Every structure is written in C-alpha cells, then in structure tokens.
Amino acid sequence: MVTGKSTILDVARIAGVSTATVSRALAHPDRVQQATRDRVMSAVRKTGYRVNPVARNLRTQRTNVILVLAPNLANTFFSRILSAVTEVAASHGFGVLIADSAPLGDHDLDVMDLSGDGRADGIILLDGALDPLRVTNTDLPLVMACEWIEDSTLPTIAIDNVQGARLAVEHLSALNHHRIAHIAGPVGNVLSTARHDGWRSAMQALDHRIEQNDYFAGDFTLGSGVSAARQWLAQPADQRATAVFCASDECAMGFIGHVTRQGLRVPDDVSVVGFDDIDLSEHFLPSLTTIHQPRRRMGARAAETVIRLIRHENTAGADAAPLPVELVVRGSTARR
C-alpha cells in the first residue's frame, strides 16, 4: 500500500506499465487491452490514486462536461433519457449539465450562454423548437434526441412517431372502434405533427371517417386532456368518438381523470391510448394502453454519439434508423 499522496508514477510501478499507459487506460479505456486495464485499475485501488480533473482539463483543453437542453424539466418523460445520458457519460469520464431550454422570464435561454464560455464540450438537444440559427451557431458537437429540427443535418436519435400513431389507431380499430378521436400536441411541434399525421393516415388506410369533432387541440399536458374531455362530453352521447388517441400519456391521464369524475368508465364507455409509456402509465387506474418509447436507449445512444463526436471518432450510422416503438396493451382499451 502506498502511503501519503499517491501519484501516477506509483500506479505505473505497481501495474508494471508506463505512465503513458496509465493515462491512456484512465482517459481512453477502450484503447487499452483488457488485461492491462485491469492491472491499472487494480493499482489505482491499491494506491488510492485520484485523477486531478483540473490538470487533466488544462492538458486536453476539455471540460469533460456534456450540456443537455430539455424543453420542460418538469415533464417526467425526460427522466429516463437524462438518467441514461448521465450513466453513459459517467462511464466515459464525463459530467452532465442539465438546463431547461424553455424561456426563462422575459429572456430566451441562449445556448451560447451555457456552452460558449467553455463549460461544455458537447450538447444534446431534446428541444426541436429552438431556433436552428441559435443552435447551429457554435462549433461544439451537437446531437438531437427525441425531437428534431426540420432541414437540419444534426445527428438525430429518435423514434418513428408516425408508425407509433398508426399502431395506436390499428389497435383501436381491431377492437371495433371506427370513430377514433385525436388529442394533439402543441401546434408546430415536430412530435405533434408526426403523431397527427400517423393518426390521419391510419384512419384513411382503414377507411374510417374523421368527423370535424374528432380533433382536439392540446399541448401534451394533463390540462389539455381535461380540456379535450370537456369538449368530448359536450357532444351528444350518440355522436361521440368511442375511442381517443392522445399525443402523450399525461394528456391521456387528464382525459381519463375528467371523464371518470363525470361518472363515465374507461374503457367501458370510451377507450383511450396514450403515447410515451412514462413510468406512471402502468400504475394509473386504469393502467394505460400506450406507445412505448425506448427512452433509456435513446439517451444512451445520444450520449455515446456526442462523446464520439467530442473525441473526433467515427459516428457513421449512429442515427441511421429510428429506434423501434411498440404498443403496450393495458387496461384503458377494450372491445366496443
């Protein structure tokens, strides 16, 4: 056991390697053979050696920090994405700075305010509503996840939202629902547009007519689900859609909660499908049928991609194909 403040020389001596190999094993473990890496890590534990992050960053001109921008940190949807980003980043020696990209007071959050002064090496964007000129006006590596910016060439990790909406409609149609309403997301949001397009194209493919009262404006929130439920309930009972596809799980929960308080039952009186499969969906009453997004996988791939960009490694194909979605059938849908 080395006593006192250990150095990289102590680690190298115990591991039987050069100091350069120790540095490489700690900074870029993927570039060192497993046996050598194991010896170095064993020596690190024996000596109690700790890397000096300030000195390391001065040498590499890096902060070893990834900035993640999310449009609404209060939205529980982002929890698994952020958790995966943090875990992958930590495994590569990076920290994570998380910021809300929504407007702060009377001032928009400027990406450069957080990244332009050297506080981050790369950025993961979860917000497709940011002005492309503001987003791309930086020389830091940028990766989009979940949402995307139209006509942008940024690497993007996302799902097939159109296909997810089609799965929802096809499921409801198979349960003999032909009037399937849709509660949309925010106007102009890329996810809202894609899920609306998927609902409409699936309805047309199945020869199901879309009535004027089958579309409800929304914004992904519980409140928008409540508002849509009020509008749906205001229609004559025999003219209401028998099923509702919601652009988010929170919206679906708001809808279910309000119609339940008004004495109706889900799915007996109306079937409801959400989108996202947030953690609460399985435990809601009734448990929510929804479209599952692989959020942890999305966050992990985004982190891996931005780290490879930071290290100037090949990222070809990292965002080539959308991540798969799947329908999770639970208690909020039933045969008509």
DSSP summary: helix tally: 12
Poorly predicted runs are 54-60, 104-109
* Total beta strand runs: 11
> What is the alpha-carbon Rg in Å?
25 Å
CATH topology of the largest domain: Rossmann fold
Q: What's the CATH C level of the largest domain?
A: Alpha Beta
Strand content: 5-15%
Helix content: 25-40%
Number of domains: 3
**Overall pLDDT level:** 87
Strand order of the biggest β-sheet: 2-1-3-4-5
Q: Please trace the helix and strand order, writing H or E for each element.
A: HHHHEHEHEHEEHEHEHEHEEHE
Major beta sheet, specifics?
Answer: 5 strands, parallel
Alpha-beta classification = alpha/beta
CATH superfamily of the largest domain: Response regulator
N-end to C-end Cα span: 72 Å
Q: If classified by CATH, what would the architecture of the largest domain be? A: 3-Layer(aba) Sandwich
Overall 3D form: elongated
Organism: Pontivivens marinum
Protein name: LacI family transcriptional regulator, repressor for deo operon, udp, cdd, tsx, nupC, and nupG
GO molecular function: DNA-binding transcription factor activity; transcription cis-regulatory region binding
Domain HTH lacI-type: 6-60
How would you characterize this protein structure?
With 336 residues, the chain is α/β, with parallel strands linked by helices. The protein folds into 3 domains: 8-51, no CATH class; 62-158 and 295-310, Response regulator (Rossmann fold), CATH 3.40.50.2300; 161-292, Rossmann fold, CATH 3.40.50.2300. It is built from 12 helices and 11 strands. It has helices spanning 8-15, 19-27, 34-47, 53-60, 79-91, 111-115, 132-136, 161-174, 190-205, 222-234, 249-261, 295-310, and strands at 65-70, 95-100, 122-125, 142-145, 156-157, 180-183, 215-216, 243-246, 271-273, 290-292, 326-328. The strands form 3 sheets. A 5-stranded parallel beta sheet has the order 2-1-3-4-5. A 4-stranded parallel beta sheet has the order 7-6-8-9, with helices on both faces. The protein has a two-stranded antiparallel sheet with strand order 10-11. α1 crosses α2, α2 (19-27) crosses α3 (34-47) and α10 (222-234) packs across α11 (249-261). Residues 54-60 and 104-109 have low confidence and may be disordered. It comes from Pontivivens marinum. InterPro entries: HTH_LacI, LacI/GalR-like_sensor, Lambda_DNA-bd_dom_sf, Peripla_BP_I. GO terms for molecular function: DNA-binding transcription factor activity; transcription cis-regulatory region binding.
